[in-house]
Amino acid sequence: MPIGKQYKTHKNNVIDLFDGYKNKRGDLNDGVDIKFLEQRVDTLKNGKFTLAVAGEVKAGKSTFINALLGAEILPTDVLQASSAIVEIFKSENSVLKVKFSDGHEEILSDDLDTPTTDEAKERLHEICRLHDAYRDIPTTLIDACIVESNELLEVNNELITKLQKSSGMKNLEHNQDKIESYILERTKDKIPVEITFGYPLKWDFEELRIVDAPGVNATGGVQDVAFDFFESANAILFVHPIKPIESESFKKFVDSVISDRSKETLFLILTHAGIYSNDEVERLQGEAKRLYGGLIPQDRVLVVDSLLKLIHCDLEQGVSVQEIRKSENKKKILSSYREQAEDEGRELIDVIYEASRFKRMFSAIDEFSMKAPNIQLQEILEKVKSGYEKQEELIGEKSSQLELKKRNPQEFEEEINRINKALEKYKLLTRKTEEELRSNYSGRHSSWQKDIEALKDKYQKLIEGSDSIESARKHTVDAINAIQNKADEFSRELTKRLEDALNKEDKSFKEEHRISIPKVDLKALEEKSKEAAYKEKETGYWDKEPIWKIWKWGSRDYYVKTGTKQEFDNEKFLDGFKTRCNEEFYKIVNNLPNQSKVVLDLYLQLFTNKMDSVIKERQKALEQEKDKKRSNEEIANEIKDLDRKKKDIQPEIKRCNEVLEDIQ
């Protein structure tokens, strides 16, 4: 798979450059917080890159995922029963790990002594398959009800009504016996909640994960575990047949289910293009862009044929046409493309790949979803480059001082005294900058409060107007994300203001006093101040379990008495859920001004302490050099050593520039 190929090369280059920088920097304080940068690089090394695949049941989702993987891993000839997320990754051998709802885990690896049988893959198929007898009942939704209940589910009018409303299936009362039979068979120890499957896939990008979410119309919506995956995914691919082109489930998925942040990563993948003419496909794609242009950008509406891509994979692996034709589905679509290849005098494999339209899809997803990771690479590399440039400046300054010491020790001593006095003045200048910034942000300007009031008004209305749990969840997450964005905006603004103020003062100070200006890593200080400000659970939402994971449908608080029975009141539960969502939202948003003040105080205190420490360290080194007694020969040798270090830095800066240019 071409997704992530270039990123992998860029990432390896950045890690290599960082390792070289870490080894070469020595004891020079170049203004880079090496521990903070190392943490960022470790996150880079251990990160996962996730493509989450969503869509309706029977939309061709499993075939599409297999085409993405380049291997037929998920069963496509049966209806999938699993209501669990299936996460697929590259590994040396097949390995399956399943967590069941009763808490027990099953781990199965491929037995290398039986090369013709892939036990892990067969077990995955077994878990995902649904018995033919249960195809006309909402099994994954029933699974969810079994998992949430502490008792054996009673199949009554209440449950039937709930299943019909959530699944969209009608006349389920006629299948009551079938539902009862399914519930008796389907105990908690048989219901998977998490599935991870490693397979020797033929791609280079080891960090890539393909996540198969349950069909959006199979469980009455998107489960919390799937929602969490969508929130963290690099790209979400919603699979839908190219005909019929209109999709209520896609509109609902965008408008009422996933968060606005997830919407920014969304693609609509229209499948089964290979059975229509090019003109018809172009017309249908244009219609989809018109229909959904208000939901996602037009360049993220893509058309593919997954079955043709699987045939292309077969041909790449040397499978004969005769063998491919043994699959009835592949045989049907293959014949017309064999004729096309003969008529045009082209290789069948090329015609098939072109018709699958996967090349364009891979390119579009790669280009889009690598933007954020590439920005992260650029930021790390820019920091490494700035460290090298500061080292070069410091080395040059020290070399000049040593030349002076060798030539005229008395003049050298006077120069050291002059620099120390200049550093004291710079310390006062940074204190003045810090005080001015603190003064500017005291009593935060009215636009900040207006922004907070606007957040309150907007999301209170959206949460209260929600007509479902999913919709209330979506709006609550959007509200929390908006608060987080506002908090991040505040800390970024602090960094920018401080950076601008220092740059303005530094230029004139450097010209006047002829010294290299001490630097501190403002981005590292920003992150440390935020981390310290939000570490307390009572003030930081992000340490809490989201409320939609705490509240369960089975809560007895939302049952009403109807005659001699207690029945679940969906409306009462929804009203209570919305009230709780608003309470949590208000608790966080009302605390935002106070938290911002905490961030400001921590940030400026960290800045002052760090700047004082850096200046003190520089002054101490200068005094030590002044007191050090050495021969001219020893000084000359140190100057040569410094010149070598400076020459070693030049190729590294050049390489940083080359990789940066390539990434950009």
UniProtKB/TrEMBL annotation:
Pfam family, one: Dynamin_N
Domain Dynamin N-terminal residue range list: 51-269
Protein localization: Membrane
Listed InterPro entries: Dynamin_N, Mitofusin_fam
Region (Disordered): 622-641
Source organism superkingdom: Bacteria
Official protein name in the record: Dynamin family protein
Protein species of origin: Advenella alkanexedens
